[in-house]
Write a structure and sequence with these properties.
The protein is an alpha+beta fold. The chain has one domain (5-28, 41-262). It is built from seven helices and six strands, in the order E-E-H-E-H-H-H-E-E-H-H-H-E. It has a four-stranded antiparallel β-sheet with strand order 2-1-5-4, with no helix packed on it. Strands 3-6 form a two-stranded parallel sheet. A hairpin with a 5-residue loop joins strand 1 and strand 2. Helix 5 (145-195) packs antiparallel against helix 7 and helix 6 (198-211) runs antiparallel to helix 7 (217-252). The longest helix is centred in the middle third of the chain and has 51 residues, at 145-195. The radius of gyration is 38 Å and the shape is rod-shaped. The chain starts with a strand and ends with a strand.
């Protein structure tokens, strides 16, 4: 059952002369609802440096080091993405909302106490005096609302963790797919480099045959065109490979100045 806010207060009234009476006014029943016992669950927050603790990041693979040059295995890129993927870091930052919900529900008193007072004359039939009144009120929650709010904060934290894990799985699948696309682009670039080595030999043979008068000059022009086409293809595949590495760096949070070079076979 949802509780409602009540206020407990005390009022001090001073009568005329030297006598005084302290009157305690119970504005509402202050008896709390059922006690709520719960196990505390630690929250993980993103540090200023962008790192999170082991529970928060859920790293399943050892992260690679971008400062070390050389090919990188898929597991290393996945581990690095666990820590530095932009989408995943944004998702983990939402843990602060769950922590704020728990912090808001944890205090025993949801609001600051209110102190008010007043002074005025009192006129009686036989005497006069001065009335001084002080009132202190404090809002509290009854009927178990604090426990309900803590339960809601806990469920919100679990929902946040589930959403973060969903984003993490999406990042892993995207990184995995892009890693293999980069492998394909690497093999195509390597094949284009091997192909571009043959047209120069064909061109030299065509030049000798034309020089010897064994063939028409058209064959020389065809050999030159094939060489130019092979070189253009090699440049295009190299650019595709570079673009695939940059996309992989963008997904995993890798520094774009030195995108990862995928290691392994198709």
């Amino acid at each position: 059952m949802k509780g409602c806010p009540v206020r407990c207060g005390a009022r001090l009234t001073t009568m005329g002369g030297s006598s005084g009476v302290l009157v305690l006014l119970l504005l509402a029943s202050c008896g709390g609802g059922a006690r709520h016992t719960r196990a505390e669950r630690p929250f993980a927050f993103v540090t200023p440096a962008g790192e999170v603790d082991e529970e928060a990041r859920g790293v399943h693979h050892p992260p690679a080091n971008p400062a070390v040059s050389g090919p990188v295995e898929l597991e290393g890129v996945l581990g690095y993405a666990d820590l530095h993927a932009p989408v995943l870091r944004i998702a983990r930052s939402t843990r602060a909302r769950a922590g704020a919900a728990r912090a808001a529900a944890s205090p025993l008193f949801p609001a600051n106490p209110t102190l008010s007072g007043g002074v005025g004359p009192r006129f009686g039939i036989q005497s006069t005096g001065v009335d001084v009144e002080l009132s202190l009120s404090q809002q509290i929650w009854i009927a178990g609302e604090r426990g309900t709010r803590l339960d809601a904060a806990e469920r919100f934290a679990e929902l946040t963790d589930a959403e973060i894990e969903q984003v993490r799985w999406s990042v892993h699948t995207d990184v995995h797919a892009m890693f293999h696309q980069a492998l394909v682009a690497r093999e195509r670039a390597a094949l284009a480099e091997r192909v571009v080595a043959f047209p120069p030999n064909v061109l030299r043979i065509a030049e000798r045959r034309v020089g010897a008068g064994d063939t028409a000059p058209l064959s020389l022009r065809l050999a030159e065109a094939e060489l130019a086409q092979a070189r253009q293809q090699a440049v295009a595949t190299a650019q595709e490979y570079r673009a695939a590495r940059l996309r992989l760096a963008l997904l995993s949070g890798w520094p774009a100045s030195s995108p990862p070079e995928p290691a392994g076979a198709l």
